[in-house]
């Protein structure tokens, strides 16, 4: 029998087990993590405690280092596998899926913008010590201010959202120098200049630790300014892949939510829903009713289609992310951005439909708080507002009709 998270953590289920050696065994490991999270996901959502135990579970399972180099204890897996794992975890607990997805993004940030030496140092550090990442890079807020103090930089400012940072070991900062130049840096989370506001109190994704953060006088050596050599940034088209990547992470979270919702609703319908007796063709069980079967068939077909599109885009973006950084062209970057936009819009739409319509085939009693089917709708409704999906549809429309590719921005 699978135990609730707090009980399962008393002794790591993977203690003395080797690191998974291939994609299939990593996905199996993710399934094991998901089984633990699913037991008490609703109770933990309602308690809304700081996600310390959830992060420990991810670390114990090794999912935090699946992209890290093998020589330092990591999995050296592809982003295609990582995105599938995010989807598996999100089906059980979307908040934890979000924490994992954002961690993996920020762990990859040094590859996106760093120098070769910075990449080597950061990947050895976080992989060998199994450190967890958060980020303070919300672009809708004013940038953090950066002062150039000679041999080091000083960051100061505030961000409304900082997913994962409160439970992190390392946090990614982004700000601007007086001349407008942007600088990313990775700093230890536990320091006096970093304060968490503890104000994440939202409809869904309650354990994603997405509240505000205040930065006061955090110092970073110029050597830690990602992608800078002698105070000059070394630009690559590859630097701009952070947005397509995080948008595809969103797709994985959304599809995970939809999968979890459909799976849970199906169990409820089979075990607890009652047939409607006032019918010209009454059935003995709800599972035999035509409208119930039609609805489940419709939702499953749509979810399969969304998953198939996402799987294709996962493979495409993974190939780009693991290829030569200097070889990426603006055209290739634009094409993957529009493919990601298509994948995300479909996933968002399908997940919203699934999490809404499951109530039509579970019945009035399924709205009980004791059942908790609302967690899926609350989670997708909350996160799908991250940036307007209408703009993703427009990007795809501009490509289809006008042959235009999205220009890199904080959201494309």
Automatic annotation (TrEMBL):
UniProt domain Acyl-CoA dehydrogenase C-terminal: residue ranges: 250-386
Transmembrane segments: none
Domain of life from the UniProt record: Bacteria
Keyword Cell cycle part of the UniProt annotation: no
Gene Ontology MF: a single term: monooxygenase activity
Pfam families: Acyl-CoA_dh_2 (PF08028), Acyl-CoA_dh_N (PF02771)
Stretches assigned to the Acyl-CoA dehydrogenase/oxidase N-terminal domain: 38-119
Keyword terms of this UniProt record: Monooxygenase, Oxidoreductase
Name recorded for this polypeptide: Monooxygenase
Organism: Paeniglutamicibacter terrestris
């Amino acid at each position: 029998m699978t135990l609730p998270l707090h009980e399962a953590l008393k002794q790591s289920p993977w203690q003395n087990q080797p690191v998974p050696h291939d994609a299939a065994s990593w996905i199996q490991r993710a399934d094991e993590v998901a089984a633990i999270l699913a037991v008490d996901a609703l109770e933990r959502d309602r308690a809304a405690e700081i996600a310390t135990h959830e992060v420990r579970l991810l670390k114990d399972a090794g999912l935090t280092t699946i992209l890290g180099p093998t020589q330092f204890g990591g999995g050296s897996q592809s982003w295609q596998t990582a995105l599938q794992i995010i989807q598996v975890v999100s089906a059980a607990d979307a908040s934890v899926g979000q924490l994992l997805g954002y961690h993996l993004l920020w762990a990859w940030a040094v590859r996106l913008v760093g120098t070769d030496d910075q990449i080597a140092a950061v990947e050895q550090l976080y992989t060998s010590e199994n450190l967890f990442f958060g980020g303070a890079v919300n672009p809708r807020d004013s940038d953090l201010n950066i002062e150039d103090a000679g041999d080091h930089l000083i960051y100061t400012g505030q961000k409304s959202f900082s997913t994962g940072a409160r439970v992190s070991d390392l946090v990614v900062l982004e700000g601007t120098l007086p001349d407008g130049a942007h600088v990313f840096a990775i700093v230890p989370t536990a320091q006096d200049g970093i304060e968490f506001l503890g104000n994440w109190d939202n409809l869904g994704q309650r354990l994603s630790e997405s509240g505000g953060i205040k930065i006061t006088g955090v110092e970073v050596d110029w050597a830690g300014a990602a992608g800078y050599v002698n105070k000059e940034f070394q630009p690559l088209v590859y630097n701009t892949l952070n947005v397509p990547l995080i948008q595809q992470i969103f797709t994985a979270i959304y599809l995970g939510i939809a999968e979890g919702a459909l799976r849970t609703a199906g169990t409820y319908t089979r075990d607890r829903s009652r047939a409607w007796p006032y019918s010209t063709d009454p059935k003995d069980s709800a599972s035999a009713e035509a409208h119930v079967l039609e609805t489940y068939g419709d939702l499953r077909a749509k979810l399969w289609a969304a998953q198939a599109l996402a799987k294709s885009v996962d493979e495409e973006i993974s190939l780009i992310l693991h290829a030569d950084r200097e070889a990426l062209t603006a055209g290739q970057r634009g094409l993957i951005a529009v493919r990601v936009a298509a994948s995300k819009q479909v996933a968002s739409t399908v997940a919203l439909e699934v999490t809404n319509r499951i109530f039509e085939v579970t019945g009035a009693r399924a709205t009980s708080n004791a059942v908790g089917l609302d967690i899926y709708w609350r989670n997708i409704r909350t996160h799908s507002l991250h940036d307007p999906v209408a703009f993703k549809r427009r990007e795809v429309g501009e490509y289809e009709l006008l042959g235009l590719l999205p220009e890199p921005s904080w959201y494309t």
